[in-house]
Amino acid sequence: MSPERYQRIRTMLAKRQTDLTVCLENVHKPHNVSAVVRTCDAVGIHRVHTVWEQKYKLPGGTAMGSQQWVRQSNHDTIGDALSHLKSKGMQVLVTHLSDTAVDFRSIDYTKPTAILFGQEKYGATDEAIAMADQDIVIPMLGMVQSLNVSVAAALVLYEAQRQRDIVGMYDQQQLSEQACQEFLFEGGYP
Ligand code: SAM
Q1: Of 25, 27, 95, which is best to mutate to test ligand 1, by the most ligand atoms within 8 angstroms of its C-beta?
Q2: Domains along the chain?
Q3: How does pLDDT run across 99-156, given as a tens digit for each residue?
Q4: Phi, psi values for residue 100, rounded to 5°
Q5: Helices vs. strands in the chain: H and E counts, helices first
Q6: Predicted ipTM?
Q7: Alpha helices in 3-103 (DSSP H)
Q8: pLDDT tens sequence across 68-107
């Protein structure tokens, strides 16, 4: 690895937000997963969480452009996933078009936060909605009911990025030196 490449990866790792994450609940279309992971990389998310039932499990070779830069944890059930995220002290937000949902821009994303996105056709499950701390919605003023899930993810994640940037969270390294070393030397990066 060239010194420039090494430095670029170090700079990326220094900005990773370990207390901001995404949970994809049975989001199963490869181009959607790929687009969300790409946005996660762009806003400095270190790890994404997925819940893929057997019927949605992606083939191992599915190309996700930014996957090598973003860690992934798969959970067997949504209960497992959300319990894990709550045990890390995260507020769990579910993107959901409901009457109780608040505008996604009213949330404080500088808190440890996990944002759940639901399946392309059916949205988030009742179990996810019941376990979440808050429903959030991106206002829809036209004729279609919802956005593509990757578009919704980009909007919410860039609001989180905006808020975190303002308070300087990208200037404070969150990953431990040990985690950076593991990422650098065990990842086999080109
Ligand atoms: N019929 C589904 C429903 O009622 O939830 C639509 C699912 S939508 C195509 C797929 C996912 O995109 C949703 O589960 C949510 O995560 C996200 N999404 C799309 N539009 C949204 C919006 N306006 N507000 C919040 N989340 C949205």
Answers
A1: 95
A2: 21-184 (3.40.1280.10)
A3: 899 999 999 999 999 999 999 999 999 999 999 999 999 999 999 999 999 999 999 9
A4: -90, -5
A5: 6, 7
A6: 0.98
A7: 3-15, 30-43, 78-87
A8: 899 999 999 999 999 999 999 999 999 999 989 999 999 9
